[in-house]
Structure formats: C-alpha cells, structure tokens
Amino acid sequence: MIAAPTATSLDTLGRRFLWSSIYLGVAVALVACGAVAFRSLTIGSVPGNWYYPYGPPATLRLAAAWLLYSAACAALVTAGWQLAERYRPLSIVLAWIVVAMALQWGLRAIAPYPVEAILLSDRANSFYSVAQAYDPAQVLRSFNRVRRNAPLHVQSNMPGKLLLIDGIQGITKRTDVLPWILIGISSLGALLLYGFVREVFDDERVALASAALYLFLPARTFFFPLMNTVTPVVTFACAWLLARWVSTGKTAYALFMGMGLYGLAFFEPLPFVLGLFFLALALLAVLRGSITWDRFTAQALALIAVFIGVAELVNLLSGFDIVRAFRSIGGHATEFNRSAERPYGLWVAANLREFAFGMGICQVVVFSGALLHALRQPGNWRERFSHPLSAICLGLSAVLLAVDVIGMNRGEVIRLWIFLGSFFQIPVAYVCSSLNSRLALVLVVAVTALQTAIGLSMINFVIP
Which of 191, 211, 396, 451 has the fewest CB atoms within 10 Å, counting from its CB? Predict the structure, then answer.
C-alpha cells in the first residue's frame, strides 16, 4: 500500500526519540519483571473481585531458566534477522515458528501446570469435554441448549471453538498432542500477520519484526493452549483480506472478507471492535488513492450482503442462528459482570493495566513513542494520516479506548484481548525496523521473553 520510511529518512531528533523509547521501555519492563519476581505486582484487581494469584516464590533454578529463555529468544531473532537478506522472508517466519514452539515447549517445564491438564480441565477450558459429549451437528442445531448446560467457558462463547476442537481430533485424539496442535495453529498467525503488515507498509523488515513480536507476545504464552490464543489467527485472516481489498480495489477480496467476518463471528465476535481500526486502514487507502470512497462503499455493501447470505445459508443447512446466539452470549456477559460483582468504574482503569502486562510492558512504552513520533511529523492532518504508522496507532488507540469504555469485559482482559495486543506489536515493529538496527528488536524481544518467563512461572494465569 505504501512504503515505510527507512532509517535514513529519520532526522537525528527522530532517531534519538525512538531509541529513547526503546531504552525506556526496556528499563520499565525490567522494573516490572523485578516486581513480579518479588511478588509485589498484582495482575488484576483485588477490589474488583478478580486477580491472578502468585505461585511458589522464585528460586535460583527459576532465575537461570528465565535468563536462558530470554537469551535463546534473542538469539533466534538475531539469526533470523541476519538471514533475512539471503532467504525468503516467509521461510524465516516458518523457521521462527518452529523454533519458537520448541522454546515454548521447554519453557513449559517451569510453568505451574502442563498444557494437557489445562486442555482437559473444565475449570480452565471446558471446550474439550463438551466436544466429547456432542457432535458438530448437535452443537449447531441446539447451540443455545448445549451452551446453557455447559461449563462456564462454553456458556460465554460461540460454537466455532467447540468445532475446532472436534476438527483437530480428526488428526489425533492424543490429549498430550492436541494442545500442541492448538499452539501450532496459534503460531501460524505469524504468517498471516506478516502478510498483513507487508501489504500495509510494503516493507519486509517491518513485517518480519511484527511476526517475531507476535510469536513472543506474553499473553499468548501465559494462556496456551486456551482458545483465546487462536483468535488472532482468524482476526489476522480478515485483516489481510481487508488490506488486499483496499489496496487493490478488487471486489473479490471484499466478498471473501464477508465470508471471513462470518467465520470470525462464528469463532469469537469480540474482535469486531476492530471495526474502527479497519475503518482507519480504509481511510488510509482512500487518502493514498488506492481506492475511492464510492468504490469502497459499494463493495462494503456487497460484503454485508455476503455476510448475511452466509448466515442465512448456515441457518438453513444446520439450524444455527448466529444473531440469536450472539444475543444470548451478550446477555450472559452482562449477567456475569453483575453476579461476579465487577464494578464498571473500577475496571475501566484496571483493564488497561492488565492489558499492558499481556501486551508487553516494553511494547507499551515503545508504542507510545511510535504514536508521539507519528503525531510530530510535519504537515496537516491529511498528510500525517496518509502514513500507515499514524493510521495504525490512532486506529488501535481508538479501539482500545472503545472496548474499554464499553465495559463488556471487566477483568481477564489479558486473555480476552490477546487479539488486540497482537496488533499493538506492529508500531513497535515499525520503530525497531526504522532504526535499521537489529539491536533494537533484540532488546525488545529479550526483555519481553524475560517478562514472559517470569510471569509464566510465578503467576497462576490458568488453574486446571
């Protein structure tokens, strides 16, 4: 869509500012890591009736594992960055996925509970047991009845997650392997994110850095193999279709996106809050001349028609009414907040703190630097917004504010907003890439891996 500025296009002040944001982010993240290691940072809110409890205290063995994991992640990214000019970028991303999964497999040795226990637990993840009790046809035909009689997590979700569990059991029924298939599916999101960022920025290094940061997103690792870690994959697919649509103006991409949005609603409707972000990308394309408003509007109407058509076809063939299901789940979420006594006003602030830890403390600081850098660029609003960094930073900020103020989620957003934290990695990737130094990305990845290792081993994010 548009090429991102290279390091040489940054003035001296801009380079110093971006480097300062990285150094400050690393410093703040290290302070947060220390606070978690000494069990003095609460993730969640005690007055808000939800927080993640600490496990056993830190030991020298744990400290050694933290440092080893951090160093290994940094080495992996360094190697991929050095090989990026000699091999196809997609090959680098695939290699990162494989090795990152191996590193995460090793990291599970210091986690409080094994992934198999989490998969089988009705308390942590009830999709497996419910998928054993009902076949896909029953789930779709009688979804509201199945949902009402199921444990908590199934009650608050659409049927896509149940059907995914049922589908991967066609590959294997081994409960020690199934969690790693889910982790693998989640990790494949790095390929889709790479494609999306490549389309928006037309810059291989920004796309590569985005994929790397997604693979080491703290919240993903904390909640493996829960289904929320798969949600970004479906969301990235829709984002890529949108980017292709508005950059080419081809109606086919709009029609495919209509199908993709139905799939997203079928799996997890919460990412629909990204509508503001998607609208920002459409405005960016219009400002750049990739598509006209008239064409975009006409194709958007076709997209809506496809969405409705798919919904009606599924209803006709299976008896599943997505609108009725969505209303039931929305009512359940409202009732849950009331019965769990989670006050709206308290969680408006507490949600942001919890989300920041899942997104990565360093990334929060660097994202803020990227936003300020975008806003300080010369020119009027049209010229500033014509840069993808501005569109992405402002669009994501609007989404975060909106989803927080709505108040549908109160607590547990470190898990529920994993898809949103994944997109917030993009401006951080832009900063690392625009500085044209692998040290920038390595510093962010290393401190993020350290935060992830400490958080995973010290805090009980998932209790079977």
Answer: 191
CB 72 within 8 Å of CB 103: yes
CB 163 within 8 A of CB 136: yes
Q: What is the mean pLDDT of residues 190-196?
A: 97
Phi and psi (nearest 5°) for 299? -70, -30
Residue 379: its pLDDT value, please? 67
Quickly list DSSP for 183-213.
HHHHHTHHHHHHHHHHHHH--HHHHHHHHHH
How many Cβ atoms are within 10 Å of 170's Cβ, its own excluded?
7
Beta bridge partners of 54: 459
Supply φ then ψ for residue 291, to 5 degrees: -155, 150
Output the CA–CA distances (angstroms, integers) from residue 404 to 46, 264, 345, in the order listed.
19, 20, 10
Residues β-bridged to residue 170: none
Percentage of the chain surpassing pLDDT 70?
97
Nearest by Cα to 176 from 122, 128, 124: 128
- Which of 226, 305, 213 shows the shortest CA–CA distance to 262? 305
Q: CB-based burial of residue 353 (10 Å sphere; 0-12 exposed, 13-18 middle, 19+ buried)?
A: middle
Tens-place pLDDT, residues 222-272: 999 999 999 999 999 999 999 999 999 999 999 999 999 999 999 999 999
User: Is the peptide bond between 225 and the residue preceding it cis, with omega within 30 degrees of 0?
Assistant: yes
pLDDT in the model for residue 5: 43
pLDDT digits (tens, 9 = 90+) for 66-97: 999 999 999 999 998 888 878 888 999 999 99
Say how far apart CA 42 and CA 459 lie, in whole Å: 10
Residue type, 107: L
Cα separation of 220 and 308, whole Å? 32
> What average pLDDT does the segment 42-48 reach?
92
The pLDDT of residue 11: 74
DSSP state of 7: G
Question: Burial of 11 by CB count in 10 Å (0-12 exposed, 13-18 middle, 19+ buried)?
Answer: exposed
Inter-residue contact 89 to 194 (CB < 8 Å): yes
Q: Are 31 and 454 in contact (CB under 8 A)?
A: no
Pinpoint the alpha helices (H) of 84-230. Answer: 89-107, 115-120, 127-133, 136-141, 143-148, 152-155, 160-168, 178-187, 189-201, 204-215, 218-222
Indicate whether 451 pLDDT > 90. yes
Say yes or no to pLDDT of 149 above 80. Answer: yes
| Higher-scoring residue by pLDDT: 380, 247 | 247
